[in-house]
Amino acid sequence: xxxxxxxxxxxxxxxxxxxxxxxxxxxxxxxxxxxxxxxxxxxxxxxxxxxxxxxxxxxxxxxxxxxxxxxxxxxxxxxxxxxxxxxxxxxxxxxxxxxxxxxxxxxxxxxxxxxxxxxxxxxxxxxxxxxxxxxxxxxxxxxxxxxxxxxxxxxxxxxxxxxxxxxxxxxxxxxxxxxxxxxxxxxxxxxxxxxxx
Length: 197
Hints:
By secondary structure, the protein is mainly beta.
């Protein structure tokens, strides 16, 4: 479980085939001190298990499905990725509850400066728009954000300068894919409503 408050951006050092999956090696900074083998870390919002911890480098195994269904499919040496350690039971929930289970990727439609802040507009895949509501929660590349405007399959979020500076959003441009995790409560409510009918 995570909160969507990204701790740092790491740098991909290697993406290599390993058996039936992949190995992802990331150079990290501050989180290296508190992470050990077997821990969960959100990498661009994907909950991954640390399989090796070598100083300032963490290694994760990726299933083919994870690589194919998230924007980690385009990760290569030099790509920056958002990192968040798993939530401690005595920790703060500064964002919202994020599981690290990606629902799909959204396409960045518009991304740029808007006054002192930044505005990102994205389009979700068909069928996912039902989970996107004004003032609702969403995690984009593991970042806890509040949805602003919703128009069909498109929605926007506002990015404050701090979030822009400490996450990989500043690397994004129109046409890029971002990992999307919709609000968990909305999915449960939808399922329960169907069962009751």
